[in-house]
Amino acid sequence: MSEGYQMPRSARDELDGIIYLPRLCDKIRKHRAGILHPEFHTNLGLGMDLWTCQFLGVDYNDLKAKIIEGDTDENVLTWARKNGVTRPDYEKAWFSAYMKNRGFRDDLSKRLAKRKKENPDTDRDDILTFMDYIEVDEGRSL
User: Fold this and answer.
1) 58 near 50, Cβ under 8 Å?
2) pLDDT of 126-138, one tens digit each?
3) Assuming Cys at both sites, which of 13, 61, 122, 139 could form a disulfide with 22, CB separation 3.0 to 4.6 Å?
């Protein structure tokens, strides 16, 4: 990672049972501050960012605007619940399981296998999901 850039927080971080939301907020803040590595720029608002917004029932650009205004993660979640969809606990559990298991024997398995092979540090048998991959790729342990 180039000097001056920072990694976003863990994809596994949760806020009130919503996995990934703290990372999404962190990526937007770091991008705005110019400290998010350019390798993350292409997928801003896509993939897990998009799935999280879809789960919350809000548009990515609207969520991004709230974060850029300076709202805390907690206030962003409150805003999303007011303007999107409030989910019952069983749906939060479903979404968490969905996010944690992307890449494991699903439509993204081949993409995960390809990504793992691109780096000797991630070409490991214990990396079974994209969340595992992200943790190791960004220097965190499983």
Assistant:
1) no
2) 999 999 999 999 9
3) 13
Give yes or no: residues 96 and 110 share one domain.
no
What residue spans of 1-142 are helical by DSSP H?
21-33, 48-56, 60-68, 73-83, 89-101, 109-117, 130-137
Of the candidates 21, 16, 27, which has an alpha carbon nearest to the alpha carbon of residue 138? Answer: 27
Query: What are the tokens at 52?
Result: 């999280």
Q: In angstroms, rounded to a whole number, what is the distance separating the alpha carbons of residues 133 and 122?
A: 7
CA dist., res. 103 & res. 35, Å (int): 28
Number of domains forming the structure of the chain: 2
- The token pair at 71 is 């709202």
- pLDDT score, position 142: 84
Closest CA to 99 of 10, 7, 11: 11
d(CA 46, CA 40): 11
Residue 2 pLDDT grade (very low, low, confident, very high; cuts 50, 70, 90): low
Owning domain of residue 127: 106-142
